[in-house]
Structure formats: structure tokens, C-alpha cells
Amino acid sequence: MEMVEQLVSRTDAAYQRWLAAVTDDVAAAAGVVVYCRESLLERNTTYGIGEWLAGYLMIGQEGDRGFFLRCDDGGGPVFWADLGGLGEVDLEVVAPAFEVWLRSGFALPPDPVPDLPLTADVYVDKVPVDGVQLLVRARKLLGADWRFGDLRAW
Which of 51-65, 75-89, 133-147 has the lowest mean pLDDT? Predict the structure, then answer.
């Protein structure tokens, strides 16, 4: 617990005040759980945060995403990262400061919209053996309107 206390003492004052005021983990909207002091050691130990993100403290979780503060005496943003692939390069900003995140009710930023083209050409070289069902599913998934009779010409 001493290691966690040292990290907490190096977080921003708003987080330290909030942590002193709560006695249980806080479940917020969108499935976010922000940990109370008693949960910090167990959660940070379970995920090996000290090994993968030295100088960071995992302060909460939502599914397979963890929320982190950098413990450098200067405050700073709240970050999140996938708990399956931790590394400093994987951190993304959730809020510019803990106090901002707290005031938002621990709201999450919208998921990024993938940068994908709106259309794509799909070519079927051969109909797979017993693959008509697969083609029907692909047609429905793609919202395509090809006629099955047209496939015979190939």
C-alpha cells in the first residue's frame, strides 16, 4: 500500500481531495468505475501497472479500458488505455484534468470514427463450395443488391 500512497501523493490536488472524500468505488454512467483508496492497490497490482506504466496510477476502469493519472507532482490529463496492451504510447486523453473529468460525471469521450471509405469494390472469384449461404450473408451485411443469377456468369 505504501507504493500506491506515494503515487497518490504525487497526483493533482483535486484527485487527492476526491479520494479522501469517497469510501467506496464510484460507479458512474457508461460503466465507468472510479476506485476508492482501498481498491487502488489491488487493481494496480492485478494489472501490473507499475511494471507496464511506471509513474502512472490506474484510478478506474470501464470494461477492458483502464483510466490513469500520471504521478509527477504536476497534475495533468486523465488518460485511458486498453488493459490488454499497456504502454505509454497507447495512452489517450479522456479529460485535460481530473477535476474536469469529475465535473463531467466521469463522462467518456466519443469513440473515434474509423477513417474508412464509404464504398469498396468486392470481387468474388468463385462461389465457395456450399458457400451460397455465405454470399447471402455478405450481400445482406454489405447492403448490396446484386442478383444471384448474375453470379452464374462468373
Answer: 133-147
Distance between CA atoms of 132 and 125, rounded to whole angstroms?
13
Q: Write out pLDDT tens, residues 38-57.
A: 999 999 999 888 888 888 99
Check if CATH label 3.40.1580.10 holds for domain 2-103: yes
N-term to C-term CA, the chain: 68
pTM assigned to the model: 0.70
Q: Which long-range contacts (CB under 8 A, 24 or more apart) does 5-9 make?
A: 7/55, 7/56, 7/57, 7/71, 8/37, 8/40, 8/57, 8/71
Locate the domains of the chain by residue range.
Answer: 2-103, 117-154
- Give the model confidence (pLDDT) of 115-134 as tens digits: 777 777 767 677 667 677 77
